[in-house]
Amino acid sequence: MKKKLRIGILFGGRSGEHEVSLNSAASILAAIDKVKYDIVPIGITKQGHWVTSGEAQHLLTGNTKLTLLKKSRSKGIEISASADLGQQSGALAQSLDVIFPVLHGTFGEDGTIQGLFELADIAYVGSGVLGSATGMDKTAMKQLFAAAGLPQAPHVNLLRSEWKADAKRAVKLIEKKLSYPVFVKPANLGSSVGISKVHDRSELAAAMDLAASFDRKLIIEQGVGGPGIKPRELEVAVLGNDLPEASVVGEIVPNKEFYDYESKYADSPENPSVPIIPARLSKSEAKMIREMAVAAFRACDCAGLARVDFLMEPAPLGGKGKKKRKPRIYLNEINTMPGFTSISMYPKLWEASGMPYKQLVDRLIALAIERNKEKQQTSFSRV
């Protein structure tokens, strides 16, 4: 009888997207094939303590009493906040065949946990250290996009220390290079946490302070379309390793001025954000966006999965006797561990492309194993 693969589903974490991770993990645990796989739930509390088995299930349902737990043992796994890294990575490697890190944001999607998996030499779902780190850091990401010749909206990078040391100089720099409205973002965070749309100078300082509370690196982006214009928000799901594929293009019509955290995750029956899958685009527009999504995936050296987001100007009106100009499309960002909740776009886009949720989970596990096997072809010693 063929041995069942033992899959660790890792969720929670210390980031501001802890609750999103719990929802994503719950969806995966409900859908994953229990006949095909042995499932080991592994939770990380907001304080960074690791828990497994029953304790992890309690964390998944929001049991806050687990915040005092420092250590848990389950079938050879021993993980604690202060434990020796080498011992823990060895235990993980011996106990699990694949880890599915359903972690969003800091300490989960930024290359840190991926480094642990690399040391443990264990197969894991998603991008490696480099892909995860560049996918999280918007400044590094945009530099790679620029090197690949991908179109982006104008933007300014600043450090928190620069903003605190001389706010007036920072404002002058922003207003010299960009025009309102602008979006102020922490460079290393996801799910639109800490992001503000700034309509004029009076709103800028508060937005900068908010972003600076979440990261030392800040990015200020030109609003696409100009004052009073709401760009179309388009998304593509990418799947694969060395030969990535793109899903159909989807569109989100947010219930607010832009697609912020509440628009993504808070249910609003009276005024919901509306997903349109597939997006209403011409064949040439959809083809170009899908090709750009794959190019962005490769530019950041991603693997497994990613969701690539775009901003598209509304179709401009042509003047009398003038040829109508095509709307501009800008690459916004890449997300290397997109949400897997029941309302998340990534699984919805693949479902619309012919791959249902359960099959998508299987495919991601297979890609993790494929990538780990490919890694075994690399020599790390001269002997």
Written account of the structure:
The chain has 383 residues and is an alpha+beta fold. It folds into 3 domains: 5-124, Rossmann fold (3-Layer(aba) Sandwich); 154-222, 2-Layer Sandwich (Dna Ligase, domain 1), CATH 3.30.1490.20; 229-370, ATP-grasp fold, B domain (D-amino Acid Aminotransferase, Chain A, domain 1, 2-Layer Sandwich). It has 13 helices and 16 strands. It has helices at residues 18-31, 53-60, 85-95, 112-120, 129-136, 138-147, 160-165, 167-177, 204-212, 261-265, 283-299, 345-352, 357-375, and strands at residues 5-12, 37-44, 50-52, 71-74, 77-80, 98-102, 123-124, 155-159, 182-186, 196-198, 217-222, 232-240, 245-253, 274-276, 304-312, 329-335. A 5-stranded mixed sheet has the order 3-2-1-6-7, with helices on both faces. A 5-stranded antiparallel sheet has the order 14-13-12-15-16. A hairpin with a 5-residue loop joins strand 2 (37-44) and strand 3. Helix 3 (85-95) packs across helix 4 (112-120). The model is unreliable at 66-89 (pLDDT under 50).
